[in-house]
Each structure stands twice: as structure tokens, then as C-alpha cells.
Amino acid sequence: MDDRCSVTKGLWAVGDVTGVALFTHVAKYQGRVAAANILGTPATADYRSIPRVVFSDPEVAAVGVTEEQARAKGLDIATGSIDLAEAIARPWTYATNPGGRLGLIADRGRGVLVGAWAVAPLASEWIHEAVLAIRARIPIATLLDTVAQFPSYSEAYLAALEKLDL
């Protein structure tokens, strides 16, 4: 949790001036946090699950920490990654020569995801499943028991979760 939206009592900052993840969607989030506080509802910003996307072809998306960052924090991590064309049907419904990968980083001790990344078509859209899982600290056991729409890119999460060495 973070309170960088509050500069001092009665003074708020949002956007690039905070120095936190310089994205429009972060500024909008900070604006909601600041507005809640101004209106009398205590709120603090939580930056653990801010999505990062490069709108390229294919798209590159990530959320949470990288493997290196997780290890630097002293976490006992498990990782799992998959080739989308080998693991799920959606790439073939989307392209005749599909490609892409999805990777997950989990904290073994807490049994939750702490990071995810994807390089694939529409990754900016389906990274949000990992955003929510990290933000809400959804147990991996619950994620493994989730039903994904077939065929969809979201199916990749189950395939990657099953690769985690927990």
C-alpha cells in the first residue's frame, strides 16, 4: 500500500508528478484515490498490480514483479511459462501461424501470483486476469479451479498455472 497521492494534509498529487508508474491509467487510479480522500473516504493506493503494456504486434504485457525482482525480495518463487500455440486453441482461431508466450511468477509461501507477462495478440486485454489475481491475492488453488471460456486466450492461465512447481 502506498500513500504517495497525499503530499501533505489537504494537498494531493496525481499523475507523473508522483513518480509512480508514469501511465495514464495510473493517474486515473490516483485521481480516484485522491477524490475518495477529499470526499472523506480514507483510501490508499496499492501499486502491486499495475499493468504495463507495449502496444506492438504482438503486444507485450506484464504485471507485478519479474523473477529477478521477486528473488531480490527474498521470495521463494515458482515459475511457469507456456507457448500459446502448443497449449491452447485460441491462437489458431486468431491466426494461421500463431505465436506467443505467457509466463507466471508465484510466491510459494503464500500460494499466490506475484507477477505475470505475455507476448501475444491482445495481451493488453487478457493480462487483466493476472492483474486481478495479484491485486486480490487470489489463492492459486482457486485460480486452478476457475473455468475459462473456450476458445480464448484466458485459457492460457490454467495451462501456465499447471506448470508452476508448487
The CATH superfamily name of the largest domain is FAD/NAD-linked reductase, C-terminal dimerisation domain
Find the count of extended strands (DSSP E, 2+ residues).
7
* Estimated radius of gyration: 17 Å
Strand adjacency order, main sheet? 3-4-7-6-5
Shape: globular
Going by helix content, strand content and strand pairing, the class is alpha+beta
Q: What is the distance, rounded to the nearest whole angstrom, between the alpha carbons of the first and last residues? A: 27 Å
Tell me about this structure.
34% of the residues lie in helices and 22% in strands. It is an alpha+beta fold and 166 residues long. A hairpin with a 4-residue loop joins β3 and β4. The protein is globular and about 55 Å long. The strands form two sheets. The chain has a five-stranded antiparallel β-sheet. The chain folds into two domains: 33 residues, no CATH class; 112 residues, Enolase-like, domain 1.
Features:
Enolase-like, domain 1; 8 helices; single chain; 7 strands; 5-stranded antiparallel beta sheet; two-stranded antiparallel ribbon
A few lines on this structure:
The chain is α+β, with helices and mostly antiparallel strands and about 170 residues long.
How do the helices and strands line up, and which of them pair or pack?
Layout: E1 6-8, E2 11-12, H1 24-38, E3 52-54, E4 59-64, H2 67-72, E5 77-83, H3 84-87, H4 90-94, E6 101-107, E7 112-120, H5 123-126, H6 128-136, H7 140-144, H8 155-163
Antiparallel strand pairs: 1-2, 3-4, 4-7, 5-6, 6-7
